[in-house]
Amino acid sequence: MRDNALLDLARRGELTMEHLRRLVAVDAQCQRTELAAYALMATRFPHPPASDLYAGLIGLVGAAQPSLAGCARALGMSEDDFRRGPRTYRTYAFDGMLSWIALQASQADTGLALHSDLTIYLGGCAELVRAVRRSGIPAPDEFLAHYGTASAPDLLALAKETTDDGLGRGDDPRTALHTAWLLEKSLDDFWRAAAEPATG
After folding, report:
1. DSSP string, 65-86
2. 0.85 exceeded by the pTM?
3. In the prediction, which pLDDT does 200 show?
4. What is the pLDDT of residue 81?
5. Which of 74, 91, 143, 169 could form a disulfide with 193 if both were Cys (CB 3.0 to 4.6 A apart)?
């Protein structure tokens, strides 16, 4: 399991409800960008399996939005808290990198990057919920359900197929690896954005 800043806080016994609220706010910010990014990818690569992957991700994020809003309400967040993420660079790092990938990356690049995203994000969420339960933080059931039950084996398989199909069309495997690495680095910042002290 890849470490992240929230898990580090949990191990040190420093994870708080405010960190959970920040996670929800940062996540909401990213979801709005994800929908547009996947739609753009679908216009650039409008053939299976790539188009199936992007459509599946749009469906996944769209379905998660009401659940995330429920987390915010259960955590006592105002609508403004939910709609506006923490005003730090790290809050927007994933948004920026995903947007660049949507505009510039090859099909294989998108497939491998999105495979990394799904693996790291969903795995990190599941591990965070386990850490929250161990810590005794009174996280609401809505938060535990939203972050603890997500899995996407079909989308992971489509991401692999999309990568392989792109490579078969002549995409550069080294660039795909580099693009996935870049998105992974932006995910590190995603978790740090939630872990940082509230500064505005």
Report:
1. HHHHHHHHHHTT--HHHHHS--
2. yes
3. 41
4. 85
5. 91
